[in-house]
Amino acid sequence: MSIHVSLDVVALIAAIVGLGVAAQFLAAMYRVPSVLFLILTGVAIGPEGLGLITPDVVGDALSTIVGVSVAIIIFEGTFRLEYGAIWKTSKAISRMITIGAVIAFVGTTLTVRLLLGASWDIAFLVGALLVATGPTVIAPILAVVPVREEVATTLEVEGIVNDVTAAVLAVVLFKAMTAQRLAPGGYVWLFVQRLATGVIVGFVVAGVVWYLLTQVEHPSETAPQTARLLALASAVIAFAAADSVFSEAGIVAAATAGFTLGSLELPYQEEILQFITDVTLLVLSFVFITLAALLEFAELLALGAAGLAVVAVLMVVIRPLAVFVSTVGAGFTTSERLFMSFVGPRGIIPASVATLFAVRLQTEAPPSDPSGAHLLLGTVFLVILVTVVVEAGFARRIAGVLGVTESEQ
């Protein structure tokens, strides 16, 4: 029986990987962001489609698989960031990850509270999670929409940083729901603990890898392979080490390790980047298809017109407000600011963390809140689904209409 089950799981994994590769191929062929095909594929093979994937098949390992996958994805995103490009747009970036994030958090929280009638606890959780745009959805869009370097870098860095801070903020807020006696300063301390732990662990892991690659002699025939594997291992080790101390600190650690190593002069840097990019495409496909397969349309439909109204406010009011306020005097044209307002899809971090919170809200007492769990999960997944389908699907066309695309070489 166990052999039969394991074979079924292996076949399912093989099918997901194969479908992921096919989705990437179609995306490249039709010049459409891959996340669009990945989500549609996941829905097609999930309970709402062919029923090949169910929550029982995935089991409790989903959060672990998603966590490690996100670590690799974020590591790759920060590794390829160019410090010089960030410096050019530092004003816009610093505002997007502070002022823009606050506008998104407060605006989303109030919208969910007023339109859906959610409790303040659930509204705050949704607001925190939906701050994150994320490299998992931004990168595939920018891969097929050639915009000016400063525009692309701002969107990429915003996605990476807000992925990290949104996840940590959401965990702190969730802990606040279970520890009602915390003083206000206690919430700040929980946030700082996770952020500081992740940064320290990321620096340490990056330092060890740098030493092994630059100060230790390797056989010339295996040196490129060793460099690639060390880089991949650093992402996973940094995530696991920090996450074992504080939940969600692992995301910060992976981001720190990636940016640190990417900023240093390493041997075989191009080979490392190509290898990590290929691995990222694979895990991105696997995670997006799996999470999309677990979508339950009943939870989305239960939100009704109010749910769609929340998505509309986020896309048409809150996102443009955050972008336009954050980019005042930053050297972007009005068309570029409109494009950046349009590109704000949500991705893996909100989906995975919302799933984890929903499970705990349904099973733990305190803070047992089954109705809140359904509202949380339904709202987050509805925003993800609509923003990815609309914004990823039409990004190239919108960029063309606004005239912000650069000539492709």
TrEMBL record:
Q: Which UniProt keywords apply?
A: Antiport, Cell membrane, Ion transport, Membrane, Transmembrane, Transmembrane helix, Transport
UniProt-listed Gene3D superfamilies: 1.20.1530.20
Kindly list the residue ranges recorded as spanning the membrane. Answer: 6-28, 35-55, 61-81, 93-116, 122-147, 159-179, 191-213, 225-242, 275-295, 301-326, 338-359, 371-390
Q: Where in the cell is it found?
A: Cell membrane
GO BP term, pick one: proton transmembrane transport
Q: Which domain of life is it from?
A: Archaea
Identify the residues that the record assigns to the Cation/H+ exchanger transmembrane domain, covering every copy. 13-391
Annotated Gene Ontology MF terms?
A: antiporter activity
User: What is any one of the record's Gene Ontology cellular component terms?
Assistant: plasma membrane
Presence of keyword RNA-binding: no
Report if keyword Nucleotide-binding is assigned: no
Q: What protein name does the entry list? A: Cation:proton antiporter
Species in which this protein is naturally found: Haloterrigena salifodinae
